[in-house]
Amino acid sequence: MGDGHGAAEEARVSGLLVAGTTSDAGKSVVTTALCRAFARRGVRVAPYKAQNMSNNSMVCHGPDGRPAEIGRAQWVQALAARAVPEPAMNPVLLKPGSDRRSHAVLMGHSAGDVSSSNWENGRRHLAGAAHAAFDDLAGRYDVLVAEGAGSPAEINLRAGDYVNMGLARHAGMPVVVVGDIDRGGVFAAMYGTVALLEPADQDLIAGFVVNKFRGDHGLLRPGLDDLERITGRRVFGTLPWDPGLWLDSEDALDLEGRRADGEAALRVAVVRLPRVSNFTDVDALGLEPGLDVVFASGPRDVADADLVVLPGTRSTLADLAWLRSRGLDAAITEHVRRGRPLLGICGGFQMLGRTVTDPEGVEAAPGSSAEGLGLLDVRTDFTAEKTLRLPEGEALGAPASGYEIHHGRVTVGAGAEEFLGGARSGNVFGTMWHGSLEGDAFRAAFLDRTLGHGPSGTEFAAARERRMDLLADLAERYLDVDALLELAREGAPAELPLLGQEFAR
């Protein structure tokens, strides 16, 4: 089960790996919280995730000044760390296009596809690049807070792992395991995670963090004491459930609406495409008072909406077919016929045009094509070359900015006018700019024009900062941050007990 990375243990760096018992256990939350808490102490800290599998990404600048693409979660964690986001913080980004194939982004730029059939060979190449990026970051920052992926106890994948224990072994880095108690079974999951690992991996598991606890901590304490006694490892704290903690999401596991208070709220229906990407585009709408943001998957869900949003997608043609199979195409067309506004973003915008073609097989089979919804006079042609931009401009009388990540090339016809890298006709708006609604001035102008929703004074960037500070405040109160920082600097304790070796062979 070893991976040959142990030789680097003698050159241990100051860092901490935040692993999880499962996906969505809270790794991103804890990593973000520690980045901000360490930064508050004057530590030069940076986030890192060797491999992220997500269709939520962001554009930053690479060391050569060119635009580059990284996972949205690492971009946010860099802000929490008060560091400049860069590709080395997420050297490998896999963007799923189907159950068996993902588009690979290596150090911020397209690197072809990785499929289940070439997974092992592909990972060896990616592992070397990921660990080189980690070593580079480690030479420029005091402490790295690395986020794992899934669970480190996926023993069927351990031989090629470079994201969890493979990374920890590469760097001689201690590991804390996060468990989501809200799901139930957290004690068994934490013990089992350690027990399934080989001895050299167990030597780096320093302790645990419990996430999403609700209720009387006195009832939890006996279980924590037993976990510490049985495993010989410390519980570094218990983070409580807090509804104000939502951050820019990494994936669709926590895709939920943002509900407004009161019955008079305007309803925003965001179509929940199967391969949705960059759905953080609507986060800013969720912060607006008086807007009720819900995710829609059927015609009924959009029937009474005041505004419909078609978000981005990793597979425009496949999700366009899904839209039609559910009757959402007719429901959206009826919504527009009734004079109500519609906003399409990136792939969602491309669906609103006359045709979508993929001659080179970028997202679908070569030569694939389909008619769009015909609500905008545009056509989209997919090409292998990927566009990464950080554009700025003006729309609806307000300054606007965003970021572009796409393969599709859009041609605007005479029946539409240009709009934020896209097109507009009447109350139908289409843009290629992700993140444009995060701009307070543009968002206010758009909502006023489409919904008569007056300026609320909501400042999105300030709200994000408050959420990161809230995370750090909770970490300071409920976790032993000083002990975790010392752990990152000093490494895992010596002679940790070995668990469950009847399983780890």
TrEMBL record:
As one GO molecular function, the record gives:
adenosylcobyric acid synthase (glutamine-hydrolyzing) activity
Query: Coiled-coil stretches, from where to where?
Result: none
Residues of the CobB/CobQ-like glutamine amidotransferase domain: 267-441
- Look up the domain of life of the source: Bacteria
Question: Which InterPro entries does the record cross-reference, listed alphabetically?
Answer: Class_I_gatase-like, CobQ/CobB/MinD/ParA_Nub-bd_dom, CobQ_GATase1, CobQ_N, CobQ_synth, GATase_3, P-loop_NTPase
Respond yes or no to whether keyword Ligase is given for this record: yes
Keyword Amino-acid biosynthesis among UniProt keywords:
no
Q: Its annotated pathway?
A: Cofactor biosynthesis; adenosylcobalamin biosynthesis
Q: Where is the CobQ/CobB/MinD/ParA nucleotide binding domain?
A: 17-245
Biological role stated in the UniProt entry: Catalyzes amidations at positions B, D, E, and G on adenosylcobyrinic A,C-diamide. NH(2) groups are provided by glutamine, and one molecule of ATP is hydrogenolyzed for each amidation.
The family annotation for this protein states: Belongs to the CobB/CobQ family. CobQ subfamily.
Protein's recorded name: Cobyric acid synthase
Organism of origin is Nocardiopsis terrae
Species lineage, top-down? Bacteria, Bacillati, Actinomycetota, Actinomycetes, Streptosporangiales
